[in-house]
Amino acid sequence: MLHIINKSPSSSNALANCLRLAADGDAILLIEDGVLAALVNTNLKHLTPATLKKYTFFVLKPDIEARGIIDNILPAIKLIDYDGFVELTLQYHPIQSWS
After folding, report:
1. Is the pLDDT of residue 41 over 80?
2. Which residue of 6, 36, 51, 78 is surrounded by the most CB atoms within 10 Å?
3. End-to-end Cα, the chain, rounded Å
């Protein structure tokens, strides 16, 4: 399953709710303000080492670049472009958007 998160964890429970219901091996894509969850130096502890191993995390590179935080992303999270986004939607079924 592909989970898409588009809200910052500081303003929404979307990521926390997703992590509570996601299954081992699911993919989680952070887009829009959801990319803020991927920051290395965040006080929000949603993306623990155990969580990063349990799921495959992706972040949309254009959204990271737009926010000027590309150098501060957790190394375990894979950066993808729009083509990669499309590939994920073809690879994972079903797709759940969280906001």
Report:
1. no
2. 36
3. 17
Closest CA to 97 of 7, 11, 4, 8: 4
- 72: Cβ–Cβ under 8 A, 6 or more apart, which residues? 39, 40, 41
Tokens of 26: 């699911």
Task: Calculate ∠ Cα 57-93-88, nearest 5°.
Answer: 45
pTM: 0.94
Regarding beta strands 27-30 and 56-60, do their DSSP bridges make them parallel or antiparallel, or are they unpaired? parallel
Domains of the chain: 2-98 (3.40.1260.10)
Token pair 């996601």 is found at: 22
Rounded to an integer, what distance in angstroms lies between the CA atom of residue 61 and that of residue 77?
Answer: 11
